[in-house]
Each structure stands twice: as C-alpha cells, then as structure tokens.
C-alpha cells in the first residue's frame, strides 16, 4: 500500500501519517507540497494521501479543499493532531538578531501575533520541515524557522523561543483520502459539497434549514468561491452522521429538489491523537 504525505522528514503531516497508518506495511510517497499529495492520489501514484484541512487557530487550509475537488478524491478518514510550534535557529541565534522567519503559511499564521511582535519579514516554504532544513543549510543567525521540536532535532537547530502559537490547545485536522468512493462501515460524519442552484437572499439559510429540520448536526461549514465570478459561493458541510444513515440520503434528496448540486466528498470517523 502506498501512502502520500507532505515531506521532507520532520513535518506534522509525517507524524500524522506514521501514527495513523502505524499497523500496516506502507510504501511512503513523500511529496514536496500539499497539492502534490492530493495530486499523487488522484494520478494513482499513491493509494492513500493525508493532508491538513483545518487548524484550530488559522481555520481552513484552502489549498487542501481546492485540491480535493480538482483531483476528485474521497475522504475516508480524519486525524486530529496536537501542534506545538517553536522558533528554531542555528546554534547561537538570538531573538533580537532575527530579520526573517521562514515556514509554510498556515504555520506562520498560527504564530501571527508573536511574529508581528518581532517586526520581521516572513518567507514562505512548502512545509515547516523544509523551512527548518533551509535554515540549517543557510547556516545564518539572522533567520529562523517555525516548525516542530522534532524537526529542530532532525536538522540540528535550537529553540530560540518555545510554543509561539496563539493557543495552548492548538490542533490540526488532517483528511485521509483515496480514489475509492467507499465509506468505512464505522463512518460517523459525512462531508458534502453543495453548489447552490442560484444566488438569492437566504440561500445558505435554506440549505442549513434542511439539516436542522432533519435534526442532523453540522460540525463544519465552509464557503469557498465557485471561481466563476465574484460573489458566487459553494458550501462545504460536514454532517454528524455517516453516509449509511438514511437521514443523509434524505437531506441530499431535499437539497436536490431545490435544484442545488450536491456531491458527497467522503464519510469517515475521527482519530484523535495525543
Ligand atoms: O508543514 C508541515 O509540517 C505540515 O505538515 C503542514 C501543516 C499545515 O499546513 O497546516 C500541518 C500542520 C500544522 O498546522 C502546520 C503545518
């Protein structure tokens, strides 16, 4: 079995992948960016992929949502991972000498207040670990990376400042995706994409009312542009039942009678890591 995740070694994605698929014999497919992970599964280079979709501080990771759709993937699992971020530099780096902080944008965003307090520039990388690796290679004392303690150890960096994220209960949710549109038997949630038939006043509330009328709890709601014109949105809704529950079929049928396009993007249960 081949599993794709965001590399290099030392990313949070690697930790999530190794802990989620721990009991299986895996051929790991390490990718350079989050969209590449989803593309690898879409193109059949890997059977499964794992990608971050939401963070407790920063919210939705849009590149994952968009790549899920482009590659026509199915969400068959979910992993919730605690995330602690540190400012990492080469030996002897002092906080007051730092001019630039490097990392993947969602990680920089989780530490926005701290980075603003440093009054430094930021530079975007494709992962926390690739930023940490670049700091080691640069061998400079005026730049630092935002990454995990594990990445710091791996690349021989020291913690210039610990736990710089904006919450002590920081977590990131990853989706486990595959091409095969089959829900696991124990699925407890279903992710739906709803593309409204038209833009009219109250369209979102009419969609949400379908779920409340059926007493189906929604655990996540996200709107994304349809990318067709400014102001035209599609909605991602996570319902609190697996797709095998007849209430999901009912909700989909009612939404379709209103003329909305509804796609089931996956059905899964959560794995919470500590
Ligand atoms: O760069 C990494 O280490 C990743 O696995 C990506 C990622 C993300 O994009 O959200 C995953 C978890 C953390 O929120 C920070 C970074």
Automatic annotation (TrEMBL):
EC class name: lyase
Keywords annotated in UniProt: Amino-acid biosynthesis, Aromatic amino acid biosynthesis, Lyase, Phenylalanine biosynthesis
Molecular functions (GO terms): prephenate dehydratase activity
Domain ACT: 192-269
Keyword Lyase: yes
Prephenate dehydratase domain boundaries: 2-179
Catalytic activity: prephenate + H(+) = 3-phenylpyruvate + CO2 + H2O
Enzyme Commission code(s) on record: 4.2.1.51
Listed pathway(s): Amino-acid biosynthesis; L-phenylalanine biosynthesis; phenylpyruvate from prephenate: step 1/1
Pfam families reported in the protein's UniProt record: PDT
Biological-process GO terms, alphabetical: L-phenylalanine biosynthetic process
An example Gene Ontology CC term for this record: cytoplasm
CDD domains on file: ACT_CM-PDT, PBP2_Sa-PDT_like
Keyword Disulfide bond listed: no
Protein's name in the database: Prephenate dehydratase
Annotated source species: Fictibacillus solisalsi
Lineage, uppermost ranks: Bacteria, Bacillati, Bacillota, Bacilli, Bacillales
């Amino acid at each position: 079995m081949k599993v794709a995740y965001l590399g290099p070694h030392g990313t949070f994605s690697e930790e999530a992948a190794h802990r989620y698929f721990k009991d299986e014999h895996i051929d790991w497919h390490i990718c350079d960016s989050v969209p590449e992970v989803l593309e690898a599964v879409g193109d059949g280079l890997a059977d499964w992929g794992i990608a971050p979709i939401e963070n407790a501080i920063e919210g939705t990771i849009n590149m994952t949502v968009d790549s899920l759709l482009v590659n026509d993937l199915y969400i068959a699992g979910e992993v919730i991972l605690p995330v602690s971020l540190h400012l990492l530099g080469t030996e002897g780096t002092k906080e007051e000498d730092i001019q630039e902080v490097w990392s993947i944008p969602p990680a920089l965003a989780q530490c926005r207040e701290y980075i603003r307090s440093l009054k430094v520039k930021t530079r975007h990388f494709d992962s926390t670990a690739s930023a940490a690796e670049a700091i080691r290679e640069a061998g400079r004392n005026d730049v630092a990376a935002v990454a995990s303690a594990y990445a710091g150890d791996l690349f021989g960096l020291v913690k210039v400042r610990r736990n710089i994220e904006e919450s002590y209960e920081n977590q990131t949710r990853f989706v486990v995706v595959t091409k095969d549109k089959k829900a696991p038997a124990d699925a407890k949630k279903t992710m739906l994409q709803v593309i409204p038939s038209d833009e009219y006043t109250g369209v979102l509330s009419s969609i949400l009312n379908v779920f409340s009328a059926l007493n189906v709890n929604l655990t996540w709601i996200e709107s994304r542009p349809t990318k067709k014109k400014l102001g035209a949105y599609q909605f991602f809704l996570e319902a609190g039942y697996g797709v095998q529950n007849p209430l999901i079929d009912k909700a989909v049928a009612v939404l379709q009678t209103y003329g909305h396009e509804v796609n089931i993007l996956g059905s899964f249960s959560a794995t919470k890591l500590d």
